[in-house]
Specification:
Blueprint lengths: L1 E2 L11 E3 L5 E3 L7 E7 L6 H15 L4 E7 L11 H11 L1
Family: Belongs to the glutathione peroxidase family.
Keywords: Oxidoreductase, Peroxidase
InterPro entries: Glutathione_peroxidase (IPR000889), GPX_AS (IPR029759), GPX_CS (IPR029760), Thioredoxin-like_sf (IPR036249)
C-alpha cells in the first residue's frame, strides 16, 4: 500500500510498506535509477524473471540501480501467500 502527497510529482514522494509492514519513504532512492516491478511467486515466468532481475541488478548496481519488487495477486491469483510466505519464497529463489 502506498501513500502520497496531494499532487505527487515524483515516485520519490510516495511511502510504501515493506514485507514486514514498515514504512519505506521512496525519497531515500533519489539519485538512483529505479526498476519497479510486480512479482508473483506462482507465475510461470517467476524463475526466469528473478534470474534476469538478479543479473540486471548485478550488472548495474554500481551505477545506482535499485530494483523494487512488489508482490501482486491481482493477475490470476498468482501471489496468494501472506507476507511471511512471500519473503520465504524470495529467499529461496534468489
Amino acid at each position: 500500500m502506498a501513500s502520497q502527497s496531494q499532487n505527487p510529482q515524483s515516485v520519490h514522494e510516495f511511502t510504501v510498506k515493506d514485507a514486514r509492514g514498515n514504512d519505506v519513504d521512496l525519497s531515500m532512492y533519489k539519485g538512483k535509477a529505479l526498476l519497479i516491478v510486480n512479482v508473483a511467486s506462482q507465475c510461470g515466468l517467476t524463475d526466469s524473471n528473478y534470474t534476469e532481475l538478479s543479473k540486471i541488478y548485478e550488472k548495474y548496481k554500481d551505477q545506482g540501480l535499485e530494483i523494487l519488487a512488489f508482490p501482486c495477486n491481482q493477475f490470476g491469483g498468482q501471489e496468494p501467500g501472506n507476507n511471511e510466505q512471500i519473503m520465504e519464497f524470495r529467499l529461496h529463489s534468489l
